[in-house]
Every structure is written in structure tokens, then in C-alpha cells.
Amino acid sequence: MDIFGIPIQALMGQLLIGLINGSFYAILSLGLAIIFGLLNIINFAHGALYMMGAFFAWIGLAWLGINYWVALIAVPAVVGALGMLIERTMLKHLYKLDHLYGLLLTFGLALIIEGLFRYRFGISGESYPVPELLSGGFNLGFMFLPKYRAWVVAVSLVVCFGSWFIIERTKLGSYLRAGTENPQLLQAFGINVPLMITLTYGFGVALAALAGVLAAPVFQVNPVMGSNLIIVVFAVVVIGGMGSIMGAIVTGLGLGLIEGLTRVFYPEASAVVIFVIMGIVLLLRPAGLFGRER
Amino acid sequence: MKRKILGSAIAAAVAMAPALSPAATTVSDGIVKLGVLTDMSGTYSDLSGPGALEAAKMAVEDFVAKEKPDFKIEVVSADHQNKADISANKAREWFDTQKVDVIVDLVTTSTALAVMKVANEKNRISLISGAASTPITNEQCNDTTVHWTYDTYSLPVGTAKAVVNQGGKNWYFITADYAFGHSLEKNTADVVTKSGGKVLGSVRHPFPGSDFSSFLLSAQASGAQVIGLANAGNDTINSIKQAKEFGITPKQSLAGLLMFISDVHSLGLEATAGMYLTTGFYWDYNDETRAWSKRFFERMKRMPTMVQAGDYSATYHYLKAIKAAGSDEAKAVMAKMRDTPVNDFFAKNGKVRIDGRMVHDMYLAQVKKPSESKYPWDYYHIRQVIPGDEAYIPLSESKCPLVKK
What is the pTM assigned to this prediction? Predict the structure, then answer.
């Protein structure tokens, strides 16, 4: 059976791959959305921190013998802590200023981090092996699905919807959302808002690092892996609506699928399709698909 | 008084000089200045970049030590960021204000074409090692450019022929969607069909890419025995890595059409074992290549790629030509470079043709299995030496206007 001249089996395969890529978009854009929502910072260092996550996983394995499973927890914790340090020492001075200052600072940070890794590791990067337990794959009939990719989708869905649940459905989440609306009032209720902001930034950064660890066995671990991805992820956040949690998750997965379809029908356009959609969304709904007009 | 003595001393020296060395070199501005213009920090910085600069410096040091020239030599460098406009501007600045005489390396086709044009206008020489496309010595050739190490014609001659002869008849291409990828795909497809193989199709991916699984899936669905990777650098690395993940290899085999030893090094032998590739240089080929490469390793902590070895060879040959010509005027130096065969660790009886192509032997290599690799960087079996005359476009098929037919 064919759809527009493409065998349905091939189409299923491509959609599944789109979903896998969408999982990475979703985790990364979720982190960005959380940070933007509470801190009003457009975190351009997100890609560099994602790259750092992948590199720390590789360094852990190659130099210290730390395996994948430990890295999956330890690396986000370490990079998250580093994020909190950045927030405490640099970002906190910028909250009263325009968005642009935060963007410039984090952009500069991204360049510095990337430059350091490029200096130390070179551009071709390093190879991270797929963990033993997840090597091999399933034969789905229409395609061969590597176990590791299935794992990535599963982790991503759990993490994304877990985060959504915490933010939208728990008491802690309600503080966060209140902080987004009116930090002064929240402070007056006795909540330590600066601490909450620091922890939130740390959490967003940890998500980026987690995506990095997840990506390490799939992509070559190299210093520019983040900057290749970050622009797409920003487009995802804009389409979903800046600061919207559900928007980030759903658009991340959805755009992964659309990109996958483009690769079937017109592969040359697969790098721009997301930006075309971004343009259209901005024209028709400037606040994004899930954003609220302010 | 002092000045007078000094003056007469110089006069005496000048008078004596012709007697001592009959061809004292007249060098413009009293100095030969080499500009290494390359990708210092981007995608191609491992295969050329700082290593290319180091190789050029080594060539200068060796030349000074061995040939004791009567002129001064200086090396400068800059990052061309793989952008044609940046590289053309830098070249112009170097020629106009820095008195640079020659530009070395140039690692993407677009930058090479832009710079060689500017250099030709200003009557300066370009020694291209990193860039790959054939128009450099074909449609867009000029009389002050030498293309040293390899091109997209020479790469498939080894790899594609060998793979077809081994039974890999049906091909599918994954191609980087820009000039270089298209050129490499076309040249390879020609060799495949000529050798009795068949091309089933191709897919073009945006450059640079990171996820190649959809393209690999299309390649898998095509049922081709061989998937030709008409891309380079990190794109090739990620394609190979993901092909393994999706169980495409070893059922279908991959042919990396442009692979450098730096790519194999970063992927590891586990992922690359058994792959064929064509290269202009391998460090572990003979005693001469080993000796030079070990010196390079001392400085860079990496073995040289063919591009870097080519930069050394080209620079040395250029300096020798200045000495022989007794001048650094571009046309005179080019004439000497064409007249003198290239004989060093890089090339044996290499010849710079009228179209600017340096014709030398290429090597068909196969990547070793992890168990066969005995020491660091022990990566290739050299399976075949491809004579220069087979490896490059014959002059009879050339579209270069400098070639008289």
C-alpha cells in the first residue's frame, strides 16, 4: 500500500524516527520554557550545556570508568549544580534588565564553553558506545528499531510529562507558577523566591544535560553538537509559546514528526521546515500555539 | 665614518655575491611570506586547521636548514571560517597590506575558488590542499593555482572501483546538499556505472546534519548493496555511527567517499573496520612517511591527515622553486614548479600539470579490524596503489582553458 508513492512501511519508519528526534526537542525546549517562564531569561547557553552533558558522560566513561546508568543521574546533577553557580554569580544581576541582556550573557557563555571544549577535544569529537543492555534492537516488520532509540523516547516522555505534572498539578508547582506571575507577592507569603529561582534554573540546565547524556550514544559527541540543535529548539519554543510547558512538550514531539515527514517527501527542505512553520505561527498567533497573549 | 665603512662593506659584499652564488634570489620586499588560510575552528579544523599551519612551518624550517636560502621566510595564518567572502577579503588584505606571496591550504571548495581568483588577479600563488572539487583545476582553473593533495575525481577511482569489483554492484548515495557533495556523487556514480555497477538512487541531506537515521532508512529501503556517503567530516562520522546503530551495516556496506584518518580516529575501528577509502597519503606507508609523520606527531600529538602532509609537500616545493627561479614572481615560480618533479615523502615523481593539478599516486586503503591494529594510529591496510595518471582527470578530458588541444 502506498501513500503519495511512498510505501506505508517506509512512512511508518520515518514517523517513528521523527518521534525520536522530537523527544530530544521536547526535553530541550521544556528546559528552556521552564527557565524563560520563571526567570525571564532566554537561555542561549542551553545548547552548550547539552553538549557539556554529553561530554561529561564521555569523560566519565573514558577517564573515570563511570558507566552510562550512573552518568544518567550524576551528569545532570553536576551540570545542574554548575548551572546554579552561573545563576548565582552572573544571571541574578540581570533580572531587572531587558531580556536582551540575559540573551547576550548566555550567548557569550555558550561561545566560551564551546570554545574551551573545542580547544581541548578538537572538532571531530569522541564516540560514546551504546550501553550493553540497550544494544541491538527490535524488528518491527516495517523497520529495525534500535533498543536505545526506544529507550530515549520512553525516558523523554516520562521526564517531560513528569515535569508537566509537577509544575501544573502540585503545590510546589503552584509556587513556581505564582513566582512567574508575581514574585514580590509570593515573597511576602514567606517563600524564598531567590532560592526557588536558582533551583529552577538548575533544573532546566539539568534537563539539558540529561538530553546530552541521552544523545551521547546516538550522535558523535562533539563541541558543536549543541549549537547545531539550539536554533531548532528555540524555534520549537517560539512555536509552542514562550514559557508554556505543555506547549514545549507537544510542539517538540509534533515538529519532530513533521520534520520526519519532510525527510520522506522533500529531504532538501528538512532543515528549514521548522522555521517556515515558525514564520506562519508568528504571523497568525504571535504568542505561539499554546501561549497566552499578555 | 662608521657609515662609510659599513657602506663599503656592503658594496664589497654585493660585488662578491654573484661570484659566490651565481643566482642570488631577488625577492620582492626582501621576504617570502606564506599565508596559511584554513578552517581553524570549524568542521574541518581537525583534518587541516592548526595541523596545516604546523605542517607549513615545518616545511619552512626544513627548507631553511637544508637549502640555506638567501632570503627570509615568514608564515602567517588566519581562520577562513569556510566562508567564501571572509576568505576572499582576508586574501585581499594579505596581498595588499601584508605582502603575502602565497596562500596555503584552503579547505572548502567555495573558499578555494574565491581565493584563487583574487590571487590570480594580484599575480600571487594559491597552493590548495584541503579543498576537493574538480572545478579548481577544470572549468575554473588559472595559471597561479596548484591543487595538491586530492580531488573528487580521484577519490572514487579507488574506492568505487574496488567496491564494485568486490561484488558491490548496486549503489545508493547519501549526499551532502552542496557543491562538494553533488560533485562527489556525480564523479562516483560515473565510476560505478563504468565499472559495471548500477546506481539505484540518492537522497540529499542538509549540510551540516546531525541525525541521519531517516536518510539511512531510505537507503536501507532501496535494497542497495552499497551505501555511498558523499559527505565529509562530522556528517560522515554520524552517518557511519548511526548506520551501525540501525543494523544497516554489516547487511549493507558503507563506502566513505571522503574519509580522513582523523575521522577513523574519532569513530574508532569498531565502527569503521573493513571500510574502503581512498587517500593521498598514509603516515605508516614507508620509512620516509613514518619519519616525517612522527616529527609531526611530536608537535601536534596527532598523526597527519593527507591534507596536512600535502601542505608540507606543497610549501617545500614552492620554496624550492623560488630558489631555483631566483625570484618570487608568481609566473616564474609556477614555471619552475611545473618543470621540477615532486620527490619527497609525500609524492614520488609527482608532476604539476599545466591546469594546476599535482598528479601523484593515490592509495586504496581498507580500515583494519580492532584485532589487527597493533599500535596507536595503526588503522589502514594499503590494498592498492593507484597510479597518478589513472587517479586524475586526463588532460584530454579537461575543460581547463589553459590546456591546449
Answer: 0.84
